[in-house]
Amino acid sequence: MPLMHADRDPDTLLVEEMLAPPPLDQARSSLEYWERRRVMLPLYRRGARREAKEMAARWQLRVEAAERIRFECTLLGRMLRALGVSGVWLGRERVGKRRLLFFAWAVVPPRLKLVAGGVAAIWLIVALTVGGAVLFALSSAL
Description:
By secondary structure, the protein is an all-alpha fold. The chain contains six helices and no strands. The radius of gyration is 26 Å and the shape is flat.
């Protein structure tokens, strides 16, 4: 019979539960509340506006943590975690080209990065040389 949490200290379990991010819906509604509060407060209530801004930033981090946990529970998230890139997550929005490029670059072996950098440098040198030659030919023809 497997022991789930019977052998663990109840205080440790309580601390882990308290440190875990809140449910995603709750985190999003709290973030919306603090953002709305900051906008609604008059300008002369600087302390309250500062507090609302700080709380919105905290809740933004909690929303991101809850989204990360939700993503890591999916099949793709588990596969990425098995590959050792569990810090990479796609969030609730569609995957952008830039994020995919950063992820692809992160998993490319260092030697291949070096070769790609060399090819890009050579291509740049050739392009500048050809462009300079064309400009020189055009300027001398005039």
